[in-house]
Amino acid sequence: MDRPLLTARLEQKLLLSASAQSYHLEFSIDELSHFDFTAGQFISCAAVDDRGKTQTRAYSIASAPRANQFDLCINRVENGFFSNLLCDLEPGQTVQFHGPHGVFTLRQPLTDSIFIATGTGIAPIRGFVEWLFPESGEDRSQGRPIWLVYGTRHETGLYYQKYFEKVAAERHNFRYLSTLSRPRDGWKGLRGYVQNHVAEIVTERAREHTEPVVAVAEPMGFDIHAYICGLNKMVSANRDKLKELGWQRKQIIFERYD
Ligand SMILES: Cc1cc2nc3c(=O)[nH]c(=O)nc-3n(C[C@H](O)[C@H](O)[C@H](O)COP(=O)(O)OP(=O)(O)OC[C@H]3O[C@@H](n4cnc5c(N)ncnc54)[C@H](O)[C@@H]3O)c2cc1C
pLDDT digit string (tens) for 113-166? Predict the structure, then answer.
């Protein structure tokens, strides 16, 4: 069955990385006054290619709900059909989509949470952070410790760095850790893969809580979740690491881009 398509009009376009040719795109929806979705969900963009075939690709929404608007964070893939179409859009131009879709959303009731992302996997996580810590309005984090571990190869691939640093400076319960696997000389931040830093957080937290294993299910549910988004190799590495540390399957929520 064909799904009804909506029209997203590009309002703003910001280059996130010249070397990676990644863009932050802000859209408004022509047909709606309010776009109802849950932070972390994705939309399916649709367009007809040169051969008359309709191509559809999923893109995570990189913002919290905001009137009839939403943001995307797009990485240009060499010879890729849809990523190039989106990255080449200019303000005023449109793209069609259906959605929202997906269950990569914060589990309720909210628990302590570790957000783990690489590359454009940061998109839905930005939505989580905007929703939990809105610039105006009520903080929804309930004082829960929230960690964001964001990794990439080079510094130029860390998107929204200033935004996350600002939230971390303003909110005592939000910790932002960025790590590079191939840093330039002089990089003063963390090094290595995200899973190594996640393991440190989990081990440290277990020590602080003086519980035998953090994964123990409480009558009301789990006391911590991990939310992982990015390419499959990274998602698997983190899931394996958390399982090794005694976590249960349901504590690990993930979205794979490939
Ligand atoms: C739930 C979900 C959410 C997603 N959210 C985002 C998002 O927020 N931002 C974003 O940029 N992408 C996101 N993606 C990936 C996106 O759907 C496309 O796969 C990506 O944009 C490439 O599509 P394309 O049409 O440009 O390339 P295609 O024409 O489909 O592929 C061209 C070539 O690139 C390779 N390729 C395909 N995908 C990738 C990739 N992700 N990285 C590197 N090479 C690739 C293919 O193997 C092929 O060789 C998401 C995917 C899923 C499943």
Answer: 999 999 999 999 999 999 999 999 899 999 999 999 999 999 999 999 999 999
Ligand 1 atom nearest residue 85's Cα: 26
**Containing H/E element for 28?**
strand 22-29
With pLDDT > 70 as the criterion, what percentage of the chain qualifies? 95
* Domains, the chain, ordered by start: 6-101 (2.40.30.10), 112-256 (3.40.50.80)
Claim: this prediction has a pTM higher than 0.90 = yes
State phi, psi for 9 to the nearest 5 degrees. -105, 125
What are the angstrom distances between the C-alpha of 168 and each of 101, 138, 146? 29, 17, 10
Residue that wins the pLDDT comparison between 78 and 216: 78
**Measured from the CB, is residue 36 less than 6 Å from ligand 1?**
no
How many angstroms does the Cα of residue 231 sit away from the middle of ligand 1? 10
HSE of 20, CA atoms in CB hemisphere, 13 A:
19
CA-77 nearest atom, ligand 1: 26
| Cβ–Cβ under 8 Å, residues 161 and 178 | yes
